[in-house]
Amino acid sequence: MQKIRSRILCQIKRGRRYRLSIFIVFTHLQVLASVFLIASISGCSSSDVRESSQQGVVVTERFIGELPCEGCRLVRADITLKRDEESGQPDGFFMHRTRVDAAEGNVSSTLWGGWRQEQRDDATYYCLEARPQEITLQLSEEGERLLWVPPDPGQSDEELVGFALRQAEPLL
């Protein structure tokens, strides 16, 4: 009788474990399904790297990366370029920059102002009207990067070549 009773208890315990295992698996499936649903919905609502108006004009572009710096190791730059919604003409820029390893430490500042777009030698240039000196960037052929252009075209400092800003999603 004792053996039968212990077998019955064992089977009951196994049944509970079995039910508990099914419950845990089912709960994990629900969580995974929820995560998948949220990921697929957010994938549908994510914006393009460029924010466009109804007329197809790219209204906001954002580029982030590093630029050269006098008096520090480099400048981390985050540039947002705005265009007029109707005409597509440049309508101002906003640049957050951090001077890395400057004498005063890492120093952040903000620039804003006007900018213009120029065509020279089959290339497109964005000229930011910053003080004390204008910043000129060349748009890459694929349009996804801005390449830094030295202010003095005769400058041959090889360390200054290769600074680029890559396209990023506009913040607002």
User: Which geometry do the CA atoms define?
Assistant: globular
Uncertain stretches of 5 or more adjacent residues: 25-29, 31-48
Mean pLDDT: 75
- Radius of gyration from CA coordinates: 29 Å
Strands, count:
10
Describe the structure.
Residues 25-29 and 31-48 have low confidence and may be disordered. The chain is globular and about 45 Å long. Strands 1, 2, 3, 4, 5, 6, 7, 8, 9 and 10 form a ten-stranded antiparallel β-sheet that branches. It has 172 residues and is an alpha+beta fold. Helix content is 26%, strand content 41%. Strand 1 and strand 2 (58-67) form a beta hairpin.
Please outline the helices and strands.
Blueprint: H1 2-45, E1 51-52, E2 58-67, E3 74-83, E4 90-102, E5 105-113, E6 115-120, E7 123-128, E8 135-139, E9 145-149, E10 164-168
Antiparallel strand pairs: 1-2, 2-3, 2-10, 3-4, 4-5, 6-7, 7-8, 8-9, 9-10
Please tag this protein with its features.
172 residues, alpha+beta, 10-stranded antiparallel sheet, 10 strands
Summarize this, please?
The chain has 172 residues and is α+β, with helices and mostly antiparallel strands. It contains 1 helix and 10 strands, in the order αββββββββββ.
